[in-house]
Write a structure and sequence with these properties.
- The structure is a single chain.
- The protein is an alpha/beta fold.
- It has 11 helices and 17 strands.
- Strands 1-16-17-15-14-11-12-13 form an 8-stranded mixed β-sheet, sandwiched between helices. A 7-stranded mixed β-sheet has the order 4-3-2-5-6-7-8. It has a two-stranded antiparallel ribbon with strand order 9-10.
- It starts with 10 loop residues before the first helix and ends with a strand.
Amino acid sequence: MSIPVVDPERYDQQLATKRERISRQFERFSPPPLEVFASPPSHYRQRCEFRLWHEGDDLFFAMFEVDPDDPKHKRVIRLDDYPVASGRINELMPRLREALLASDVLRRRLFQVEFLTTLSGEALVTLIYHRPLDEAWESEARQLQQALDILIIGRSRKQRLVLERDHVWERLEVEGRTFHYQQVENSFTQPNAEVSRAMLTWARDVTRGSQDSDLVELYCGNGNFTVALAENFRRVLATEISRTSVASAQQNLAANGIDNAAVGRMSAEEFAAALKGEKGGRRVTEMALEAYDFSTVLVDPPRAGLDEASCRQLSEYSRVVYISCNPDTLEQNLESLSRTHRIARFALFDQFPWTHHCECGVLLERNVA
């Protein structure tokens, strides 16, 4: 991997380069002007993971960088701070390192550290080891947890010790509303909280005026969009394949007092079959699909995008909100979707500054015959 070089004075320039690239890549679809949502130029990632590198009596946080002269060789890059990471992570890095240096029990065979933080300063730190964790480790870890005002989880092979809880609660202010999100250790969450707020604001804006119809959401994760969009629709049905994410999404609906949305554990392919009446079973029965009138579908697929069958399924909806973490697969999917729909809104979310990655949002509306 390449470690991002953060230079806040050049942020506008790097964002302009992304704007130009995305505008050019999708020009043939005749989209409206690109809406661009900037990130904080530094300290924007709320979660990070580092190797814990040992050199004699010393230890430090590290990442690996591929040597351009020898792609098979990875260089160890020492990190005493990390401008990409949140302010809370940067504040914890030297304090945690000093505590580990002072404790043979905590440092022994520790090889990876993962941080999960929130805008309000909550921090969950996972310490991962190449050895079993015992009572001595737990005793010292509890002291460290109190000293640093953090939550700690210890991991090793076939072992996971949660000292207090395995999640943090993120609070996102969106259009005067505060949404609460349980974010669980070792499961997917949006890493850039400020850009996530922008994405939710945009998604709410493009789906207004839909209170007489229903939303179906595929790949809903922990309910990030489900929670924010529920009030725009009569009812919402969200689907997700990960058990952990489904449980977290259900927690988030309850935490936000949302009673017009349901989350079912089902893959996008299974859901498509259920809609066609080709799949039955308890989970399908519980969804009561006949009670819904879906006008809008929101899809936030993995980097591989959607297969042709999924694109055909999406083409049956009047309105498609497509959130993409990979412009190349989005472009491929639009080749199919543009046969039946036009791009009504188009957005670039700079989720990952200082990298080539771009997050896009597309609102597609069915062509009028």
